[in-house]
Amino acid sequence: MDTVQIIIYSVFSLFLVAVALFILSGWGDWLIAGYNTASKKEQEQYNLKRLRAVVAVMILFVTAFIWYVAWLDDTVAVLLGALPVLLIGLVAGIIIANTWCKKK
After folding, report:
1. In whole angstroms, what is the distance from residue 89 CA to residue 59 CA?
2. Residues of the chain with pLDDT under 70
Protein backbone atom coordinates (compact mmCIF):
# COMPACT_ATOMS: atom_id res chain seq x y z
CA MET A 1 0.00 0.00 0.00
CA ASP A 2 1.44 3.34 -0.98
CA THR A 3 1.35 6.62 0.89
CA VAL A 4 -1.59 8.09 -1.01
CA GLN A 5 -3.77 5.07 -0.22
CA ILE A 6 -2.81 5.25 3.45
CA ILE A 7 -3.78 8.91 3.56
CA ILE A 8 -7.11 8.24 1.84
CA TYR A 9 -7.97 5.34 4.16
CA SER A 10 -6.89 7.36 7.20
CA VAL A 11 -9.02 10.38 6.30
CA PHE A 12 -12.04 8.20 5.54
CA SER A 13 -11.56 6.22 8.76
CA LEU A 14 -11.25 9.38 10.84
CA PHE A 15 -14.47 10.63 9.24
CA LEU A 16 -16.28 7.41 10.16
CA VAL A 17 -14.95 7.50 13.72
CA ALA A 18 -16.12 11.12 14.00
CA VAL A 19 -19.58 10.11 12.76
CA ALA A 20 -19.70 7.30 15.34
CA LEU A 21 -18.75 9.72 18.13
CA PHE A 22 -21.26 12.26 16.81
CA ILE A 23 -24.02 9.65 17.04
CA LEU A 24 -22.91 8.47 20.49
CA SER A 25 -22.95 12.05 21.79
CA GLY A 26 -26.62 12.39 20.90
CA TRP A 27 -26.15 15.02 18.22
CA GLY A 28 -26.43 12.60 15.30
CA ASP A 29 -29.79 10.94 15.84
CA TRP A 30 -30.89 12.32 12.47
CA LEU A 31 -28.16 10.18 10.86
CA ILE A 32 -29.70 6.90 12.02
CA ALA A 33 -31.53 5.51 9.01
CA GLY A 34 -35.11 4.56 9.72
CA TYR A 35 -35.18 6.24 13.11
CA ASN A 36 -35.05 9.73 11.66
CA THR A 37 -37.99 9.07 9.33
CA ALA A 38 -40.13 7.22 11.88
CA SER A 39 -43.11 8.89 13.50
CA LYS A 40 -42.84 10.06 17.10
CA LYS A 41 -44.92 7.06 18.17
CA GLU A 42 -42.53 4.64 16.44
CA GLN A 43 -39.47 6.47 17.83
CA GLU A 44 -40.81 6.05 21.37
CA GLN A 45 -40.62 2.26 20.93
CA TYR A 46 -36.78 2.36 20.91
CA ASN A 47 -34.25 2.83 23.66
CA LEU A 48 -32.29 5.62 22.00
CA LYS A 49 -29.09 5.16 24.03
CA ARG A 50 -28.89 1.51 23.04
CA LEU A 51 -29.69 2.32 19.42
CA ARG A 52 -26.93 4.93 19.33
CA ALA A 53 -24.46 2.41 20.75
CA VAL A 54 -25.40 -0.29 18.22
CA VAL A 55 -25.16 2.09 15.27
CA ALA A 56 -21.80 3.45 16.47
CA VAL A 57 -20.41 -0.07 16.89
CA MET A 58 -21.61 -0.98 13.40
CA ILE A 59 -19.84 2.08 11.97
CA LEU A 60 -16.63 1.16 13.80
CA PHE A 61 -16.97 -2.43 12.58
CA VAL A 62 -17.18 -1.22 8.98
CA THR A 63 -14.16 1.03 9.60
CA ALA A 64 -12.14 -1.92 10.88
CA PHE A 65 -13.26 -3.96 7.89
CA ILE A 66 -12.09 -1.24 5.50
CA TRP A 67 -8.64 -1.23 7.10
CA TYR A 68 -8.48 -5.02 7.05
CA VAL A 69 -9.31 -5.14 3.36
CA ALA A 70 -6.85 -2.37 2.61
CA TRP A 71 -3.98 -4.19 4.30
CA LEU A 72 -5.00 -7.61 3.00
CA ASP A 73 -4.77 -6.49 -0.63
CA ASP A 74 -5.97 -9.86 -1.96
CA THR A 75 -9.28 -9.94 -3.83
CA VAL A 76 -9.89 -13.68 -3.46
CA ALA A 77 -9.31 -13.60 0.30
CA VAL A 78 -11.66 -10.64 0.62
CA LEU A 79 -14.46 -12.32 -1.32
CA LEU A 80 -14.13 -15.70 0.36
CA GLY A 81 -13.22 -14.72 3.90
CA ALA A 82 -13.74 -11.11 4.80
CA LEU A 83 -16.93 -10.28 2.90
CA PRO A 84 -19.02 -12.97 4.64
CA VAL A 85 -17.76 -11.70 8.00
CA LEU A 86 -18.86 -8.17 7.07
CA LEU A 87 -22.30 -9.35 5.94
CA ILE A 88 -22.82 -11.49 9.06
CA GLY A 89 -21.72 -8.59 11.27
CA LEU A 90 -24.07 -6.13 9.62
CA VAL A 91 -27.02 -8.54 9.72
CA ALA A 92 -26.29 -9.20 13.41
CA GLY A 93 -26.21 -5.44 14.02
CA ILE A 94 -29.56 -4.97 12.32
CA ILE A 95 -31.10 -7.80 14.34
CA ILE A 96 -29.69 -6.38 17.59
CA ALA A 97 -30.99 -2.90 16.69
CA ASN A 98 -34.47 -4.34 16.17
CA THR A 99 -34.54 -6.51 19.30
CA TRP A 100 -32.21 -5.31 22.07
CA CYS A 101 -32.90 -1.63 21.32
CA LYS A 102 -36.68 -1.95 21.51
CA LYS A 103 -38.39 -0.97 24.74
CA LYS A 104 -40.24 -3.77 26.43
Report:
1. 11
2. none
Q: Are 22 and 65 in contact (CB under 8 A)?
A: no
pTM for the model: 0.87
Distances (CA, A) of 100 to 16, 22, 83, 97: 24, 21, 25, 6
pLDDT in tens, 65-92: 888 888 877 777 777 888 888 899 999 9
- Output b/e per residue, 79-90; b: 16+ Cβ within 10 A: eeeeeeebeebe
Question: Could you tell me which of 51, 83, 54 has the C-alpha nearest to residue 68?
Answer: 83
Q: Helix %, strand %, coil % for the chain, to 5?
A: 75, 0, 20
CA-atom Rg of the chain in angstroms: 16
* CA–centroid distance for 22 within its chain: 13
